[in-house]
Amino acid sequence: MARGKKRKKKQGPVRKWLWRLVKTGFVAGLLATIALVVAVLVIRSSLPGFEDLKSSPNGQMIRVLDVNGKELFSMGPSYGEWLQFDDIPEVMKAAMIAVEDRRYENHPGVDPIGIARSVQVRMQRGYWAQGGSTITQQLARNVFLNNNRTFGRKGREILLALAMERKFSKEQILELYLNKVYYGGGAYGIDAASRRFFAHSARELGLAEAAIIAGLVKAPSRYSPTADAKAAIGRAGVVLEVMQDAGAISAAEAAETSPASVKLAPEPRQNSVRYFTDWALPQLDLLIDEAVEPIEVWTTLDLDMQRAATTAIQSRVPAGAQGALVAIDRDGAVRAMVGGTDYVTSNYNRATQAVRQPGSAWKVFVYMAALEAGYTPNDTVTDEPITIGNWTPRNSGDRYAGDINVRTAFAFSKNTVAAAIGNDIGTSTIANMARRFGITTSINTNPSMVLGTSDVRVLDMTRAFASISAKGVAITPFGITKVQTMKGDILYQSKFDGSRVLVDPWVAAGIADLMQTAVNTGTGRAAQIGRPVAGKTGTTSSNKDGWFLGFSSGLTTGVWMGRDDAKPVRGLQGGRAPAAAFAQFMKIAVAKRKVEKFDTELILPEWQLEPDEEELYGAPEDGIYVDENGMPIETGGGIEYDLEDGEAADGPQLDQDWIDSVLGRGADPSPQRPEAAPAPRPSPQAPEGQPESLLPEAVRAESQ
Fold this sequence. Notes:
The chain has helices at about 1-45, 50-55, 90-100, 110-125, 135-145, 150-165, 170-180, 190-200, 205-215, 220-225, 230-245, 250-255, 275-280, 285, 305-315, 365-375, 405-410, 415-425, 425-435, 460-470, 505-520, 575-590, 605-610, 615, 655-660, and strands spanning about 60-65, 70-75, 295-300, 320-330, 335-340, 380-385, 400-405, 480-485, 490-495, 535-540, 545-550, 555-560, 625, 630-635. The chain is an alpha+beta fold. The chain has a 5-stranded mixed beta sheet, with no helix packed on it. The chain is elongated. The relative contact order is 0.09.
């Protein structure tokens, strides 16, 4: 008995130690469990609700559409449409669970088997090569944490995953995951990914497409079809094998599915469309205040017209030169914009940024000012040598046609006639006309300005011609018609303002009459398209710039060609390559539009036919015009205004005696016309139009 008692005393301390260890472990485990439960419950109570998580995108997505709703490209992160759990294709759910979390339905948010396997691989390879994160953990990381590989972040991820599993159902977690995870190419969520990579909604996903998308989560930048289509297809094959192994699909389904046969969406357009979007999208800052919610921007661009414009410029521009084209609709909507032959090579927008001399295209302002001053298209003018100060303009070939009418002088771009008209009505009057019609660059008032020596932009010149097409109503180019949220709420809607009239309709009709003749019989014959066209060519000295601007059926198009370094381009004339590019584009652009004839029957104002005292004194709205710097510019035929009292410093006294003499009421029945006021133009002495064959050869050649 004594020996037994002695043996029991020897074993006592060991058992006592073991018992204490067990009790300590139990208590510690119990406390840890309680702490874990408390932490999970606390985190659960602080988690946002399901609806809040659905509406929490990280950054604004801007989807840019053309006038017909075709997507041009997307800016920022893309979220697409949120799909409810029941709307998500089963193959998409099965593919994601098989490849990312095979035991998803059975674990509480954390998969111990997955973690054990990850640790085992880590010990074998010496680095973390295989993740043990569940779908819930990945969702927690994407929504609340970052991708830093630290134990602290991993611990928070586990707690969040456990809390999310306590707050949301498995279906809700999977719905959140599929709609929020990043899939590459800027796409967040399966709908955005489907539209980005396959150009259709995720509702329509097939097995092969679902396999491609499911394979992206592991490494979006590596497997994204936009980054490496071959790698994406190869990864999809692995996903199909995993799905078969998990029992999600049969061996026959896996064998019949070919990811390589999936048609990928074309890459976003990075060429000529970007000239337009680079110009139009900065306007958003002035139109809306929304900076968070995803939006759709409906633009004025017509993709079919844009393709035609790009082709016309690329196929017609001379070797070594550049080209630009702008097409503006009757309300100011820009339907096409090409700023160069290739955007990738050069994103410099020659349609909106470059300033070049317009040459004879400037004469539309000269002749509009002349019409407003009292000239008519049928008036007789003389094409002869002229010297103004120390400037002597010349026609091409130094040949002159003698007496011709205004219409013919414009059609064949006679420099001497334009110079004479400018000298008659005043170059400041012409400058004011150009400013009225939207020319924003500096305008010189030297005598030579009538031949287009002031630098202009293609967009401004096209805008001016569009206002002529609108019968003198101001047209303002714009590129955005509507901005709305993805839910359809309208944030901005464009409105056309046709209230500002630049010139009387008869002036616009008169210049359209002249421009129609220029295309029918003059320098712009290459711009004919089988329907009425009004336009004007322009060529600068040494063939540095070639222009054609015109309109038909409500669409106005301006074309410029030349070198960026302003060196001469052999054979470049406005009536050749630019006019041909205009015709090539317009034949496609207006093909489906109604043929419209021009209103060329002029109804002249009464004062031109029978002057009265009021008009001779001047219209009530007459005053001092100012330029863009606020400095006064000359109006009429040479009146200089005294800035002290606003009276004319020089010129005839417009009193009753002078009026009586003009109207033949006094002793002198034939007074001289004063420089300060336009007198009625004589009745036409030349026929309305001269056949080209009867004109001298010089008349048929465009002036430099």
